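Hey L., structure's done. Input below.
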Amino acid sequence: MKPLGSWLLLGLLALAGAALAQKAAEPERVRGVLTQVDRSSIMLRTRDGQSVRIALAPNAAVFALSKASFTEIDFGTYVGAVSERMGDTYSPIYRDSLSWLHQGLELRIIDESLRGIAVGHTKWDLTAQSVITHGWIDDIEDRVISIKYGPTDQEETDVEIGHNIPVLRMSMGDRALLKLGAQVVAGVHKGPDGGVAVFVFVGKDGVVPAL
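Output:
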């Protein structure tokens, strides 16, 4: 039980960064394709063509991302979504108070065993205006979902998931997924020797993680 608990805590700290102290220490995300793998480190070619060697923390969490479908979601499904606010457009979901509508950039359906990981809403670095929200689906209106992450009306984000937006399933993985050619996003604490990864998202079956 201890290793799983450590993995989930690392994922929580890395993805959510809810407290100020956690935000200060939040890992930098490095995206690319694996070009070398050994027991204690990985090397990847980043999307701008650089080669970076990154050490793996002994208890680094590895998460698998595989293809999924919007039809798999339902009320209560635990999800994570990267999105951008759509200007001054309001959500079509009816509630007592108006809510801004966000355009989804990626939706992840998260395995039940990981429910609660990174719950909340925070800024993200996929684009200049992107945010990431983790929570449970509280309402659905066509392709717009309401992601709830707390008890108040303000603690929810309405996200439109277009037909062209990737929908992935996120599950717990292991280091066997770290293979040459795999597309990854690594959460790295940078240092003079290149940095140490505390989590790695790995795309399976040709999936390229957008987040």
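The chain has a mean pLDDT of 89. The helical segments are 2-15, 20-24.

-- N.
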